[in-house]
Each structure stands twice: as C-alpha cells, then as structure tokens.
C-alpha cells in the first residue's frame, strides 16, 4: 500500500501507533514497526535518560523506521530534544504546544516532523511552522485532547479542505473499517492509540489492559478542561473529580486533586481506583489483548475487505 504517508515514513502500511504515555515503550514501538506500521515511543512519560534507553533498545529490536512522540508542555523538553537529536531519531511527532518552537531545529537535523492538532486553526499554524505532516485528532481520542470537542469525522474533511500536507486521522479508529472511513474522508493514514493499549507489548499495567477490554460505551469522559482536557475511564478518582466539580472549584483546587503522577499510578502501576486511566471512546469496541503485529495485520485485512465492499456499492 503506497501513498503520501507510507512514502514519507518509508513504511509498508499507513498506520501509526500513537506515542501514549505509560503505554508506548520500545517493545510496542518496535513490534508495530516490524509489522509494517510506524511505531512511536511515548516520551511524555520518560525522563531524558530513560528515553535514550528506549531509543537504543528500539534500534536493536527493529531495522524499520520508528519515531518519538513529544508533548511540548513538559518542563524538560529541551533535554528530550537533545536526546532525540543526539541519538539520530529520524521521525518526531510533537503535540500539546507551539510547533514553531522546535520544528526548524528538528528539520535542520534532517528529522521528519509531524504535529498533532485538534482544529483547522492549529493545523494551519502547524503548516506555517514547516511541519511535514499533520495528525488531526478528534474529540473521541483518549488522553489529552482538544478543547473544541470536534469529532474525528467532522475534523478530517475540514482540515483536508484547507491543508496541503499529508494528513493522518486520529481518535476513535481501532479497526480496518474505521481506517477506510477516515481515508475516504481525506486522510492519508491513521494514528491508532487505544487499540494498541490492549496489546501484549504495551508497557501499561495488565490490570489497565483488562479494564480497557471490559469497558463499554459511555465508560469514558473528557474532563479537566480548565487544566488540560483529558479523556479517561470512569473510576473512583473520576467520581472524586465529579464531586469536586459540583462545588464550582477553582483551578487550584482541581490541580490539588489531580496531584502528581496520577496517570502513572493508574496506567503503569495498576491502581484502577485512584489512578487516571486515559483511553479513547473506541475502547468499547476493543474486546481482547493480542500481539501488536496481529492488530496491524487484522486492520489491513479488514481494510482491504471493506474497500472491496465499498467498490461494489
């Protein structure tokens, strides 16, 4: 399958594994890359030297292209960028920040830069900043999300109408039919997060994976819009958040309740009651834990079957 995304990243299939904090270590990234997609390391949950370790291990585990996702809101961003450049990473996805700050520097070091956006406005700003491609992520996505609440299948054609760059769809895509639908609407490829959380190679806690595959429609909610919007599974911590919201809390009270390392406590350490469990709405369609390579293979098989069905209509 060849198109602008496979050509840009030199991969077999236009499937990108999202760089999710506490889920996307070297085992998952290398497995997806070896299967023909693009694996990403999630630098958001890594100290600089931990990121270096994962990059080195990923290089040993795959000869295929892989990248690093870097949320730009973290305080040690400069150190992370130094590691990425010094280790010769060839592809970087940036998110949650201004792409103008680091894009020129990365491209000067021959790095392909992709930026994640949640609106047409920010897609155009990223294009102006000189990125090589855009990920347009809809409201359905897990983890930190846009404030606009625009759904993926509304956002993709709107961005496509205004954008000249290769476009990757994200948010609510977990199978081949979703992939085909996104591409019919104008995407050149897809970024998949939640489906890869429920994979053997994901670095997240086994109890989190089990909770994901047990979840149903309506079990996730986007909250903390005053801080940084985040979609998560409903648990005891979520109920505490809702109770606090009923009191019309200040931003400081929300920050105090959130505390430190809440996502690590849930997704990585396995505290299913008091942790922040970030996952997308599509979790209700995920029912099993399987190897990442099988996930990629099944997506492509279903994509090709669905495409033939569409051709018959």
Describe the structure.
- With 313 residues, this protein is α/β, with parallel strands linked by helices.
- The chain has 2 domains: 4-203 and 285-312, Alpha-Beta Barrel (TIM Barrel), CATH 3.20.20.70; 215-282, no CATH class.
- It contains 14 helices and 11 strands.
Write down the CATH class of the largest domain.
Answer: Alpha Beta
Q: Unreliable runs, pLDDT <50, ≥5 residues? A: none
Mean pLDDT: 94
Mind telling me the CATH superfamily name of the largest domain? Aldolase class I
| Shape type | globular
- Extended strand count: 11
Strand order of the largest sheet: 1-9-8-6-5-4-3-2
- Give the % helix: 40-55%
Q: Sketch the topology as an H/E string, one letter per element.
A: HEHEHEHEHEHEEHEHEHHEEHHHH
CATH topology description of the largest domain:
TIM Barrel
**Overall tally of domains:** 2
- Give the radius of gyration: 18 Å
What would you say the CATH architecture of the largest domain is? Answer: Alpha-Beta Barrel
What count of helical segments does DSSP give? 14
Task: Note the gap between the termini.
Answer: 22 Å
Q: Approximately how much beta-strand content do the residues carry? A: 15-25%
Sheet with most strands: 8 strands, parallel
Assign the structural class, choosing from mainly alpha, mainly beta, alpha/beta, alpha+beta, or little secondary structure.
alpha/beta
